[in-house]
Amino acid sequence: MKSKILLLALLFGFSLTPLWGDESLSLSSQEKELRNVAPKVFIDCSRRICDLNYIRTEITFVNYVRDRQSADIHIIITRQRTGSGGYEYTFDFIGQGHYEGRDASLKYHSSPTATEDEIRQGVVKILKQGLVPYISETPLADYISVVYERKKPLTQPEMVKDKWNYWVFSIGIRGNANMEELSKRFDYSVSLSANRTTEAMKFRFWANTNLNERRYIVDDEEIISQSRRKVLFTQYVKSLGPHLSAGISGTYYSSTYDNADAFIGFGPAIEYNIFPYEQANRRELRIQYTLNYTHRRYIETTIFDKDQEDLFSQQLQVIMEIKEPWGSAGLRLAGSNFLHDFSKNKISGEAGIYFRVFKGLSFNVTSSYSRVRDQLGLPKGGASKEEILLELKRLATSYDFRLELGFNYRFGSIYSNVVNPRFGNR
Is there a contact between 108 and 126 (Cβ–Cβ < 8 Å)? Predict the structure, then answer.
């Protein structure tokens, strides 16, 4: 089946005539029969990735359902950032019911300069190509017309010639202002990046500077607060096989919030993925170890009477992400410590799950917890009331905990074919 889909995807452009229109109009017996045999499709894709209303408008030859248990075809759409700055979209078609075992996977690559309209057109094109094998076994096949668009005979594709040699550069400037009679807030940031990504290696460079200024009038007195941050990060990663990679990174960090005049660090890392990296769009289980050296220069003397110091640290983390028909789950466990004193450490965990319990009922929970024992840079003088309220300095803490959970139950019609954009879609 996969070879059939790829053949259609590579060689043919095709169109499928809409088979039914407005639900309020009466349908002929033939149209009703076609609607009854049309495959029921559940598209598993977040709104930030897919324009679901556009998909339903452009692909009108299937029945859309709002729950995967009711579907004949479950389509999972995920995406990953490519080295050029675009995205690789992966479409996993999972057959259910009488289509059980009829699975396939297709991909679509968007360019970094593609507009939202061009991207959604590309998504719809791949969806149509993937649905053809399912449609071809129904009476709907009579409405498929195939058009061969290529004018020249097929030849062996030439090697891609890239004048940039896979380098991608970007620069961003952002600023905003929020002003009221007694308060004003200004914020700006400048960022630069340079990246090169191939199958064999990955190089990343990113730099950012940010200034946040707030002004308040209290009892005819103007209070001004400022926070500044500068970050520079560079990393080189080498592929060592389908499961293994190694890298080295360097950082520069300066922040008034973290009492950091200048933190300069570098160190090696190694990572092993239990699953092959090529499956990362659906599942990954990565184990990563990092060793790091940092020279720290502080703005204020720390609680350990340090104005500057040299530190060695290590970190071990396990990262799991899974996206399956039943839902999705993610987990990150990390532990780090300074080598000169193992009691100065941090242990943290993050977990999230979105689970469809049964037809119509879903459950989601996300939480994170950190046991903090590594705050070496806290200023000896502490923080004033104003600095605490304005969040200008990091405060001492032994833990950090966050939790979010929710249930959602939907019932009623299983179909969601109709699109009505009046007054928005929220």
Answer: yes
